[in-house]
Write a structure and sequence with these properties.
With 185 residues, the protein is α+β, with helices and mostly antiparallel strands. It has a single domain, classed as Transposase IS200-like (Alpha-Beta Plaits, 2-Layer Sandwich). Helix content is 38%, strand content 13%. The chain has four helices and four strands. The chain has a four-stranded antiparallel β-sheet, sandwiched between helices. Strand 2 (50-57) and strand 3 form a beta hairpin. Helix 1 (31-48) packs antiparallel against helix 2. The chain starts with 14 loop residues before the first strand and ends in a 31-residue tail after the last helix.
Length: 185
């Protein structure tokens, strides 16, 4: 993606990624918007060759550990995921009872006006902060996994990582979460 210093050079390797809302707008304070992210991740698993190992949705960003299956590429999956979720969530904001609707849409429109390739709204930042997770460095993989699951605890949303519904932490204690993940070994 343009402006991203963290390039995905191996399209089938495991990567830690961060998707951030422009201007750090707290979009994901509404359950409905978070569920759009959940549904889109599951769709990408079923239809686009995505493997998800970990994820968390915070108020203005999403952290994930993703990999593309053989025969697929991670960058197009990310592109399609971000494009679809942006359109869908903006549509929900426009049509719904979001109390910050006017303010949010103006923020997204202002960000979109700065780029010729954007027709109206810009929702996600371009960069993904992609960090390759080398399986030969299990400590780094564990660090990123813990970082993802500890985000809601550090934000004081829950006491324990597995208590946060919009995360894969529940899967790592043997229960079933909202997204069909594969556990990291």
């Amino acid at each position: 993606m343009s402006g991203d210093r963290y390039l995905i050079t191996d399209q089938n390797a495991i990567h830690f990624l961060t998707f951030t809302i422009i201007d750090w707008v707290d979009v994901f304070t509404r359950k409905e918007f978070k569920l759009e992210i959940v549904d889109s991740m599951n769709y990408c698993i079923w239809e686009k060759g995505l493997i998800i190992y970990a994820w968390v949705i915070m108020s203005n960003h999403v952290h994930v550990i993703w990999q593309a299956k053989d025969g697929y590429q991670l960058s197009p999956i990310i592109r399609d995921f971000k494009k679809f979720t942006a359109k869908r969530i903006i549509s929900l904001i426009e049509e719904g009872n979001e109390s910050r609707k006017v303010w949010m849409l103006k923020k997204f429109e202002f960000a979109g006006k700065r780029l010729k390739r954007i027709s109206k709204y810009k929702f996600w930042k371009d960069d993904n902060h992609a960090v390759y997770l080398d399986p030969l460095w299990p400590d780094m993989v564990d660090q990123k996994l813990n970082y993802i699951h500890d985000n809601p605890v550090k934000a004081m949303l829950v006491y324990e990582p597995h208590q946060y519904v919009f995360s894969s932490a529940i899967d790592y204690i043997g229960e079933k979460g909202l997204v069909e993940i594969e556990l990291l070994q």
